[in-house]
């Protein structure tokens, strides 16, 4: 009976698991840009955020080596096998295809035996460093979606840096350091991704986990993308809604996983010992058999397709956007400023579609859910509008006489037509909006990405901390511009080395680096409370030094020669010989 009950429960669990398991994998992947829906007005398009599928991005990259002549084989040379470093009869010859190891072999199909690999020249110029830069370029912004995996055919290097660029290689920043001894190589304490958290996920670390010497089973180095995703989506990446929400609201997090170029800096080959064997320098070289980089084209959530044409990746933009990254509105669709799509609200997100320009409304189709019902708007009395819009350069000011020309997204029912400029503008925008069509937010407010443009709550107050922010305005994500030493979305937190005191002020003292001296105590990190005999910022000076009386009988300097205090000290110590002063 117990067995049958157990089997029934097990079968039920398997059924539930099989149904639920695909759910987080497909939900919220944003693979559709628009779909047709039925409304009271008939069949219309419903727009949503969308992005291309993740793929192997090594198929589209260009590789560059520095120095350019670092690949082995020109001239031909022999090198030692990794498994037996003293068997040095292997040959590298660039003129013979079977013996050549060019850079493209880092990205070819793996699975053949023997494996193919790129290889550097050996360390024959020791003690001059053997260093190589391998730059991977896409000429396109991409978003990483899986671990970067580098497979070495030689031993994994003793020292290596993985770097990224967001501006097509003009500037670089470290992604992660790798070393057999992080403290010695980079003056950093060793860490692994497991030591990080949601709050420190952007920290640049040095790891010793992947930098061992000559071990035939230790060939792979990772840069852990998925482990960092797991801080938000859970260990099995099932809670993708949480991850997408974080990527949408935290620009620095999204930028962390975004690159235009990657650079692998090989700084020291696998030695495997304390000292380099100068009699067998053919043992030391770099060899890489495979590099995996998975990601997707960055299309700002305005495309599901990224095409590769003429050696260039380009998004096939939707939502009336254009550009390599869908980063601007198409001509005649500039009725409001361009904005990237938003992952929120889950699961469809917000398309933030570019809408028709006001001068071309009559020639373009209507966009439901983005373009409100224009016929419901009223037009104001001429006497109410003209005084507010009277300009010296305008010959006549008239009220709009076509209701379809007055488009304010429900934030105003009053418009004015300026004859000279042949344009219509909204008057007295409400709900903290502004602009020609009430399409922008007032200064001190930012766009609510989860609200439609005609929503009364489309603009949210910035709430910048007045003591920590430069001004009361914020960017499109709600982040305020902070004063020096201040951080946080609302500029209400202090950077390390600063403390809050009517705003963030640099620490005068603390209990780590800036210790109060001579018995002083640190008061709220802003000043040292010094003993009576001492003064200075850190109580580092004798008070008598300022008055120039330390040698007098002020009592704050050293006891004068022959003083009773010294005679008493000598007596206590049992000094046999007389004191000499």
UniProtKB/TrEMBL annotation:
<dbReference type="InterPro" id="IPR008211">
    <property type="entry name" value="Laminin_N"/>
</dbReference>
<keyword id="KW-0424">Laminin EGF-like domain</keyword>
<dbReference type="InterPro" id="IPR056863">
    <property type="entry name" value="LMN_ATRN_NET-like_EGF"/>
</dbReference>
<feature type="domain" description="Laminin N-terminal">
    <location>
        <begin position="46"/>
        <end position="296"/>
    </location>
</feature>
<keyword id="KW-0677">Repeat</keyword>
<dbReference type="GO" id="GO:0009887">
    <property type="term" value="P:animal organ morphogenesis"/>
</dbReference>
<dbReference type="Pfam" id="PF24973">
    <property type="entry name" value="EGF_LMN_ATRN"/>
</dbReference>
<dbReference type="GO" id="GO:0009888">
    <property type="term" value="P:tissue development"/>
</dbReference>
<feature type="domain" description="Laminin EGF-like">
    <location>
        <begin position="462"/>
        <end position="511"/>
    </location>
</feature>
<keyword id="KW-0472">Membrane</keyword>
<keyword id="KW-0336">GPI-anchor</keyword>
<dbReference type="InterPro" id="IPR050440">
    <property type="entry name" value="Laminin/Netrin_ECM"/>
</dbReference>
<feature type="domain" description="EGF-like">
    <location>
        <begin position="505"/>
        <end position="540"/>
    </location>
</feature>
<dbReference type="InterPro" id="IPR002049">
    <property type="entry name" value="LE_dom"/>
</dbReference>
<keyword id="KW-0449">Lipoprotein</keyword>
<dbReference type="Pfam" id="PF00053">
    <property type="entry name" value="EGF_laminin"/>
</dbReference>
<dbReference type="GO" id="GO:0005886">
    <property type="term" value="C:plasma membrane"/>
</dbReference>
<dbReference type="GO" id="GO:0007409">
    <property type="term" value="P:axonogenesis"/>
</dbReference>
<keyword id="KW-0245">EGF-like domain</keyword>
<keyword id="KW-0524">Neurogenesis</keyword>
<dbReference type="GO" id="GO:0099560">
    <property type="term" value="P:synaptic membrane adhesion"/>
</dbReference>
<keyword id="KW-0732">Signal</keyword>
<keyword id="KW-0325">Glycoprotein</keyword>
<keyword id="KW-0221">Differentiation</keyword>
<feature type="disulfide bond">
    <location>
        <begin position="482"/>
        <end position="491"/>
    </location>
</feature>
<dbReference type="InterPro" id="IPR000742">
    <property type="entry name" value="EGF"/>
</dbReference>
<dbReference type="GO" id="GO:0098552">
    <property type="term" value="C:side of membrane"/>
</dbReference>
<feature type="disulfide bond">
    <location>
        <begin position="462"/>
        <end position="474"/>
    </location>
</feature>
<feature type="signal peptide">
    <location>
        <begin position="1"/>
        <end position="28"/>
    </location>
</feature>
<protein>
    <recommendedName>
        <fullName>Netrin-G1</fullName>
    </recommendedName>
</protein>
<keyword id="KW-1003">Cell membrane</keyword>
<keyword id="KW-1015">Disulfide bond</keyword>
<keyword id="KW-0217">Developmental protein</keyword>
<feature type="disulfide bond">
    <location>
        <begin position="530"/>
        <end position="539"/>
    </location>
</feature>
<comment type="function">
    <text>Involved in controlling patterning and neuronal circuit formation at the laminar, cellular, subcellular and synaptic levels. Promotes neurite outgrowth of both axons and dendrites.</text>
</comment>
<dbReference type="Pfam" id="PF00055">
    <property type="entry name" value="Laminin_N"/>
</dbReference>
């Amino acid at each position: 009976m117990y067995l049958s009950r157990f089997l029934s429960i097990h079968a039920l669990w398997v059924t539930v698991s099989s149904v639920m398991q695909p759910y987080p994998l497909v939900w919220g992947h944003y693979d559709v840009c628009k779909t047709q829906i039925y409304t009271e007005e008939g069949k219309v398009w419903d727009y949503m955020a969308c992005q291309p599928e993740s793929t192997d991005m090594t198929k589209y990259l260009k590789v560059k080596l520095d120095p350019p002549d670092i690949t082995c084989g020109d001239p031909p040379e022999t090198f030692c096998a990794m498994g037996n470093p003293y068997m040095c009869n292997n040959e590298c010859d660039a003129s013979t295809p079977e013996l050549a190891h060019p850079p493209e072999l880092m990205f070819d199909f793996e699975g053949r035996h023997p494996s193919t690999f790129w290889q550097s020249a050996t360390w024959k110029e020791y003690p001059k460093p053997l260093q190589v830069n391998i730059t991977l370029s896409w000429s396109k912004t991409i978003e990483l979606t899986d671990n970067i995996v580098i497979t070495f055919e030689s031993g994994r290097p003793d020292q290596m840096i993985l770097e990224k660029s967001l501006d097509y290689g003009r500037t670089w920043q470290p992604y992660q350091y790798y070393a057999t001894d992080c403290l010695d190589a980079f003056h950093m304490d060793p860490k692994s991704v497991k030591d990080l958290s949601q709050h420190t996920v952007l920290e640049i670390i040095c790891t010793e986990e992947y930098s061992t010497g000559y071990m035939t089973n230790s060939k792979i180095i990772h840069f852990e993308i998925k482990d960092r995703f797991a801080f938000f989506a859970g260990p099995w990446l099932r809670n993708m809604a949480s991850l997408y929400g974080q990527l949408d609201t935290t620009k620095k997090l999204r930028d962390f996983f975004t690159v235009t170029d990657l650079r692998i800096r090989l700084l020291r080959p696998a030695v495997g010992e304390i000292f380099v064997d100068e009699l067998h320098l053919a043992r030391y070289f770099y060899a890489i058999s495979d590099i995996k980089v998975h990601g997707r084209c960055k299309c700002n959530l305005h495309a599901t397709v990224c095409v590769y044409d003429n050696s260039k990746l380009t998004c096939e933009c939707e939502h009336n956007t254009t550009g390599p990254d869908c980063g601007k509105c198409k001509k005649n669709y500039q009725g409001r400023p361009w904005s990237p799509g938003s992952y929120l609200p889950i699961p469809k997100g917000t398309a933030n579609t570019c809408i028709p320009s006001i001068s071309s409304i009559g020639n373009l189709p209507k966009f439901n859910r983005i373009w409100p019902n224009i016929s419901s708007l009223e037009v104001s009395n001429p006497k109410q509008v003209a005084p507010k819009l009277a300009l010296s350069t305008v010959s006549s000011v008239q009220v709009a006489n076509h209701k379809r020309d007055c488009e304010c997204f429900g934030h105003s029912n009053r418009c004015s037509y300026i004859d000279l400029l042949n344009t219509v503008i909204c008057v007295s925008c409400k709900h903290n909006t502004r602009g020609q069509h009430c399409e922008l937010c007032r200064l001190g407010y930012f766009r609510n990405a989860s609200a439609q443009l005609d929503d009364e709550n489309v603009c949210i107050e910035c709430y910048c901390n007045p003591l920590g922010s430069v001004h009361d305005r914020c960017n499109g994500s709600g982040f305020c511009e902070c004063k020096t030493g201040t951080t946080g979305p609302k500029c209400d937190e202090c950077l390390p080395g600063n403390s809050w005191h009517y705003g963030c002020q640099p620490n005068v003292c603390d209990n780590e680096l800036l210790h109060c001296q001579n018995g002083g105590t640190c008061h709220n990190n802003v000043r040292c409370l010094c003993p009576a005999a001492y003064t200075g910022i850190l109580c580092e000076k004798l008070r008598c030094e300022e008055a120039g009386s330390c040698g007098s009988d002020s009592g704050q300097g050293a006891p004068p020669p022959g003083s009773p205090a010294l005679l008493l000290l000598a007596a206590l110590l049992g000094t046999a010989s007389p004191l000499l002063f």
